[in-house]
Amino acid sequence: MKNQIRRIAGVAIAALIVSCGSTGAIVSPPIENIDATPLKTTELTSVESENWKDYDLVRDTIPGMSVNRAYEEILKGKNGKTVIVGVIDSGIDVGHEDLDGVIWINEDEIPGNGKDDDNNGYVDDVHGWNFLGDIVKENYEYERIVRDKSKLPQDIVTKAQKEYDEKVAEAKQVTSRYQQILQQINAVDPILEKETGKKDYTKEDVAAIKSDEETVQNAKAFANYIYGLGVSSLDDARSELENLIETNNARLNGTALTTNYRADILKDDPYKWDTGIYGNNKYSGPDPEMKDARHGTHVAGIIAAERDNGMGINGVSNNARIMVLRAVPDGDEYDKDIAKAIRYAADNGAKVINGSFGKYHSTNPEWVWDAIKYAASKDVLFVNAAGNEALNTDETQVYPQDQELAGTEVADNFITVGALNFEYGSDMVANFSNYGKSSVDVFAPGVAIYSTVPNDNYEKLGGTSMAAPGVAGIAAVIRSYYPKLTAAQVKQVIMNSGLPTQARVKVGGEEVQSFQELSVSGKMANLYNALIMASKM
């Protein structure tokens, strides 16, 4: 790494925390004046690339959340309180080598006895609950609305029908192109396997290929094109394309409007609230290989992967316990499941909930809003992913959200997170991230985040889905060391303590705007500063 200039208002000195939950103020000065920080001109090393969310902008010229610095200078030698974090997602590999020690255990439930020992309505809910049962694949909400339009209000149906018609038209145009790209991937894959000598070759392996043969050079150029789209491997690109083709074909042949996974598999009516307990305690879903739990396992690792255990990664929080709430299928989530999951978390001791999901249509948003308000009454902070369509969500309603479009917030315990890139400067906002001066609260690392995936593996994934758990991890740390702060206070600490910049940045990879105008706070979440501010409240 090139020699870096480190500028800060003062030299950080040893942090002082009198005890767990102490009100004693930390004497280290906060990070300030980041606009004086030089831009990083060298590529990230492999170690930096896998841990960039933890780095410090001033010390490392990488726009992480200053996690390492917080543990080195503020939290070293200190003990905090255990904090339960509910992860509403696709499921989690609870036996993962880097997560098995941080999974929440319901001490009031006797595992495997087939009884509801704690009388909360859920049988054998040792680590949480699976509200999807054996459902994996699901339709998008607008498809379900068009399918079930006789049961739903006309204004909801009209909006969904418009999007469905647009998606069908789009499918006709792009499906053949997707098939062509898939054919190209299948053609170059064996060439690159032969040249690298590896079946699971990396971007770096491809870059190291030395050959003058035209077929090899063409294969290498095509792979680099795919990598440039933000995909980490050709296998991932193949899988994504196959899903897109399958989805488009379902739209074109009409099966998207005839399939009803909910009725056929779960036997539950999503439009009726009082239907009793449904689902099961299969925390990773029905697939024995746990492919469905990839997203949720990745999110859980960002929040709480075991720190300093000599393997994998370090989660942001050292005292979090992950409550598994499987409610997000491969498709759009149901409002009913999300609302039930939020209430379960609030009733069973969670102090932070992470929601890395979202959609643009909703049949029963009031159920989710009521659940958010219920969580607020239980002093639970909900951390929400902003979405990945590069949209201004002040102008486009996204669900879940703590407000109707341009409306008043329903509660003060809800924080929405946009995604940052690792390149500080004009490209530091992820080109896919949603934004909004009134609807997005803060930004955090969300591009190529390295974390846990099922079966003791690790992988880089990107999205606001990866930015939200970074902030959920910060919230868990604050609630661990400063447990007297309320959920609303923790939200304000995270927003107010972030790093501000006057930089103008690309939005959607093109339009240039002031970073200050992209969120309520105009800041980047920062654990180091958050702890300093929390100590003074």
Folded structure, characterized:
The chain folds into two domains: 34-138 and 280-535, Rossmann fold (3-Layer(aba) Sandwich); 149-257, no CATH class. 35% of the residues lie in helices and 11% in strands. The protein is built from 15 helices and 13 strands. It has helices spanning 46-51, 57-60, 67-75, 141-147, 154-196, 203-207, 214-227, 234-253, 261-266, 294-304, 335-347, 365-377, 464-481, 487-496, 527-535, and strands spanning 83-89, 128-130, 320-326, 352-355, 381-385, 414-420, 442-445, 449-453, 457-461, 499-500, 504-507, 511-514, 523-524. The strands form four sheets. Strands 2-3-1-4-5-6-7 form a seven-stranded parallel sheet, with helices on both faces. A two-stranded antiparallel sheet has the order 8-9. A two-stranded antiparallel sheet has the order 10-13. Helix 5 runs antiparallel to helix 7. Mean pLDDT is 91; it is low at 1-23. One of its GO terms (molecular function) is serine-type endopeptidase activity. InterPro entries: Pept_S8_subtilisin_bacteroid, Peptidase_S8/S53_dom, Peptidase_S8/S53_dom_sf, Peptidase_S8/S53_subtilisin, Peptidase_S8_Asp-AS, Peptidase_S8_His-AS, Peptidase_S8_Ser-AS, Peptidase_S8_subtilisin-rel. Residues 80-498 form the Peptidase S8/S53 domain. The active site is at 89 (charge relay system), 235 (charge relay system), 295 (charge relay system), 465 (charge relay system).
Structure in a nutshell:
This protein is α/β, with parallel strands linked by helices and 537 residues long.
